[in-house]
């Protein structure tokens, strides 16, 4: 097990290296210049061309791309993610102040989506081709199809403006977290429930399940103690992927609810062409996603003894 974990961790190195190269080059392709946008030269006002050129030189934007990339990577190895061109604060400080909100949303959305999705998937598989199955499939289809921003606005209109029971913007109290977490959780229900249903149906149709029924074991015990345990690997994969995507993809929800998370910071950085902030933030999010997937792979051996790690 230890060798497997070390091998998976070593596999992160080339993955993150490729991610860093792609992100660095894609950021440079974005139209616009951060210094020009910051000082408003494009509108014919603001700092002089000499000042703009001096600022480009100060931030190293005139250096060759390979020099800029190596300087950025060298800083990361020394614990320096760079300094934001817009806020003039270290990116590590910005991410440290914002990451907690993104973690709260990701954990909360994953927990709600996992619990409701697994329960709905088990019900659908248990009552296959019956009313319960059809209802769950319709709900899951709606959950997958409705965009998160539209669902967020609907919840905001009803609970904030109509009922006036929940706050709409910010993240200062636990009440502020309810609607964003529910929005993300409802979006996760569809994928997790469909995965659970498919995996459960495959297990329920196995010979050992039919044998358990022949021995008179109750249907509830077969579903909860035998079928679901053997069908949990695909479900665990779906939950891990959803959690990783919420860490990196809660941007829309954070923007709508005005939550100072990593997503809103990334959006403002893209709008301002803040090269250091964009590339370091995307790299951290990519690293988080890859680490979550690695942890899920490691959990396979603990969840299902049939999975042999060699």
- Low-confidence segments, given as residue ranges, are none
**Cα Rg:** 24 Å
Mean pLDDT: 82
Helical amount: over 70%
| Beta-strand residue fraction | under 5%
Listing every helix as H and every strand as E from the N terminus to the C terminus, the arrangement reads HHHHHHHHHHHHHH
Q: Tell me the major beta sheet.
A: none
Structural class: mainly alpha
How many distinct helices? 14
Q: What is the number of strand segments?
A: 0
Q: What best-fitting shape do the alpha-carbon axes yield?
A: globular
Distance between the ends = 8 Å
Characteristic terms for this protein:
mainly alpha, globular, 14 helices, 310 residues
Would you mind describing this structure in some detail?
The protein is 75% helix and 0% strand. It is mostly helical. Helix 6 packs across helix 8 (178-204) and helix 7 (148-162) packs across helix 8.
Task: Write a brief caption for the model.
The chain is built from 14 helices and no strands. It is an all-alpha fold and 310 residues long. Helix 5 (91-126) packs across helix 8 (178-204), helix 6 (131-145) packs across helix 8 (178-204) and helix 13 (262-271) packs antiparallel against helix 14.
């Amino acid at each position: 097990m230890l060798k497997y974990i070390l091998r998976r961790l070593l596999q992160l190195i080339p993955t993150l290296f490729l991610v860093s190269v792609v992100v660095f080059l894609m950021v440079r392709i974005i139209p616009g210049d951060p210094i020009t946008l910051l000082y408003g030269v494009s509108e014919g006002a603001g700092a002089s061309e000499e000042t703009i050129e001096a600022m480009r030189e100060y931030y190293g934007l005139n250096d060759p791309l390979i020099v800029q990339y190596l300087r950025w990577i060298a800083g990361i190895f020394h614990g320096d993610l760079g300094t934001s061109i817009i806020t003039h604060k270290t990116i590590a400080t910005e991410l440290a102040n914002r990451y907690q909100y993104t973690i709260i949303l990701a954990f909360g959305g994953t927990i709600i989506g996992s619990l409701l999705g697994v329960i709905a998937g088990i019900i659908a598989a248990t009552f296959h081709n019956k009313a319960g199955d059809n209802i769950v499939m319709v709900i899951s289809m709606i959950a997958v199809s409705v965009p998160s921003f539209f669902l967020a606005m609907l919840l905001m209109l009803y609970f904030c403006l109509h009922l006036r029971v929940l706050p709409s913007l910010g993240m200062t109290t636990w009440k502020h977290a309810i609607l964003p977490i529910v929005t993300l959780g409802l979006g996760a229900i569809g994928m997790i429930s469909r995965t659970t249903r498919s995996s459960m149906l495959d297990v329920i149709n196995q010979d050992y399940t039919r044998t358990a029924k022949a021995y008179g074991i109750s249907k509830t015990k077969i579903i909860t103690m035998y079928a679901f345990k053997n069908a949990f690997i695909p479900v665990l994969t779906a939950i891990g992927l959803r959690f990783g995507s919420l860490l990196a993809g809660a941007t829309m929800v954070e923007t709508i609810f005005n939550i100072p998370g990593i997503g809103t910071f990334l959006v403002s950085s893209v709008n301002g062409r803040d090269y250091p902030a964009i590339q370091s933030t995307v790299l951290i999010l990519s690293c988080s996603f890859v680490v979550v997937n690695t942890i899920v792979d490691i959990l396979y051996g603990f969840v299902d003894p049939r999975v042999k790690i060699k």
